[in-house]
């Protein structure tokens, strides 16, 4: 087993560039995905392609998974847990439900393997530029080992607490984001109807108590923040389908612990409608079109 060899499972939009950054940092990366195109792209970035999970884990000091949902992570972990060398570090960077994340840690513990849940924020741009933020949950000793690896793919690595704490931080943060984006959009729609210019509202709110990331970085109207997706017809950015996924995870988590999150529930409903109207591929700030009225929703 070599600490410089990393197994990487899930070479999609996020996993592909993350694995490429590990290669750039000097790790030997062995990767696996179900999709041929993802494997080919990773190969061009210096990732050694494995044909199955057994090949990925061979000789690896750490395994990273970057998969769509909790069921994928649990299935893959169940398969690899019986194949890895003792003391192999397991890192899941996918965004999944807190219960599955805790279950994954429990499975690892049953095999005496250290594990970390480490979902990310920063999107494909951050994955490519190695500027992701990692929110990690798990034992401190496992976190310390993971930090060295994660720091080659990100800028900020925060240890949030025990098993599942990284996923909890991720969905709480994104629930704030979904709610605040809708709030900002509603304010622009109201301002427009009151005859207030978008720039004037931005100039006031961006330096007043309405200030937030949804306004000052991802502004949902074109003009005030030239880099925001509104200036390129709402090309993501952060896709509305992913915002819906995270808001649903937040609602599931809230239900499982009896937390009252009425605005989180409303945000999930609105993003559900926005997705149902066929806008899931747009940046999540495009929801302003839905709030302006039906004729502008598509
Ligand atoms: P993606 O669909 O592009 O990639 C997932 C990859 O996993 C696919 O290539 C798929 O073929 C592969 N896969 C699925 N099951 C597999 C299996 N059993 N074995 C091997 N490979 C398998 O998704 P993504 O955008 O890269 O997102 C990955 C995770 O990161 C998700 O949990 C997502 O919520 C989270 N995330 C995404 C973004 C983003 O902007 N895309 C941002 C933050 C977090």
What is the strand and helix layout of this fold?
Blueprint: E1 2-9, H1 15-24, E2 28-32, H2 36-44, E3 48-49, H3 53-57, E4 60-65, H4 70-81, E5 89-92, H5 98-110, E6 115-117, E7 120-121, H6 123-129, E8 132-137, H7 140-150, E9 154-161, H8 165-193, H9 198-205, H10 213-216, H11 240-257, H12 262-279, H13 287-292
Parallel strand pairs: 1-2, 1-4, 2-3, 4-5, 5-6, 8-9
Antiparallel strand pairs: 7-8
The protein binds nicotinamide-adenine-dinucleotide.
The site of nicotinamide-adenine-dinucleotide has 24 residues, from helix 4, helix 6 and helix 11.
CATH class of the largest domain: Alpha Beta
**By CATH's scheme, which homologous superfamily of the largest domain applies?**
NAD(P)-binding Rossmann-like Domain
Oligomer: single chain
Secondary-structure element order, as H and E?
A: EHEHEHEHEHEEHEHEHHHHHH
Low-confidence stretches: none
Strand order across the largest sheet: 3-2-1-4-5-6
Key words describing this protein structure:
six-stranded parallel sheet, binds nicotinamide-adenine-dinucleotide, single chain, 298 residues, elongated, 15% strand, 2 domains
Folded structure, characterized:
49% of the residues are buried. The protein folds into two domains: 2-163, 3-Layer(aba) Sandwich (Rossmann fold), CATH 3.40.50; 168-297, N-(1-d-carboxylethyl)-l-norvaline Dehydrogenase, domain 2, CATH 1.10.1040. It is elongated and about 65 Å long. The mean pLDDT is 96. The chain has 13 helices and nine strands. The protein has a six-stranded parallel beta sheet with strand order 3-2-1-4-5-6, with helices on both faces. A three-stranded mixed beta sheet has the order 7-8-9. The longest helix has 29 residues, at 165-193. Helix 1 packs parallel to helix 2 (36-44) and helix 4 (70-81) runs parallel beside helix 5. The termini are far apart. The protein has 298 residues and is of the alpha/beta class. Helix 5 (98-110) links the parallel strand 5 (89-92) and strand 6 (115-117). Residues 9-15, 32-35, 38, 66-68, 72, 76, 94-95, 120, 123-124, 242, 245 line the site of nicotinamide-adenine-dinucleotide.
């Amino acid at each position: 087993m070599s600490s410089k060899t990393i197994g990487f499972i899930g070479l999609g939009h996020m996993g592909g560039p993350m694995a490429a950054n590990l290669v750039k940092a000097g790790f030997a990366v062995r990767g696996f995905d179900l999709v041929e195109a993802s494997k080919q792209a990773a190969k061009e970035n210096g990732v050694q392609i494995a044909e199955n999970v057994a090949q990925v884990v061979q000789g690896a000091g750490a395994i990273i998974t970057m998969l769509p949902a909790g069921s994928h992570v649990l299935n893959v972990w169940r398969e690899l847990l019986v194949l890895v060398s003792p003391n192999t570090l397991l890192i899941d960077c996918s965004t999944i439900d807190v219960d599955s994340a805790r279950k994954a840690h429990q499975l690892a513990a049953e095999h005496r393997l250290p594990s970390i849940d480490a979902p990310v924020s920063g999107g494909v741009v951050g994955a490519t530029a190695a500027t992701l933020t990692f929110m990690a949950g798990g034992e401190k000793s496992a976190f310390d080992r993971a930090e060295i690896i994660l720091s080659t793919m990100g800028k900020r690595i925060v240890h949030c607490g025990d098993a599942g704490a990284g996923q909890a931080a991720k969905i709480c943060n994104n629930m704030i984001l979904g709610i605040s984006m809708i709030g900002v959009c509603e304010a622009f729609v109201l301002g427009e109807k009151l005859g207030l210019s978008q720039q004037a509202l931005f100039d006031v709110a961006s330096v007043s108590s309405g200030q937030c990331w949804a306004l000052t970085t991802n502004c949902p109207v074109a003009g005030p923040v030239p880099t925001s997706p509104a200036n390129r017809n709402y090309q993501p950015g952060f896709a509305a389908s992913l915002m819906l996924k995270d808001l649903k995870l937040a609602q599931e988590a809230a239900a499982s612990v009896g937390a009252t999150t009425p605005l989180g529930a409303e945000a999930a409903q609105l993003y559900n409608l926005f997705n149902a109207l066929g806008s899931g591929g747009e940046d999540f700030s495009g929801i302003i079109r839905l709030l302006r009225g039906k004729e502008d929703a598509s």
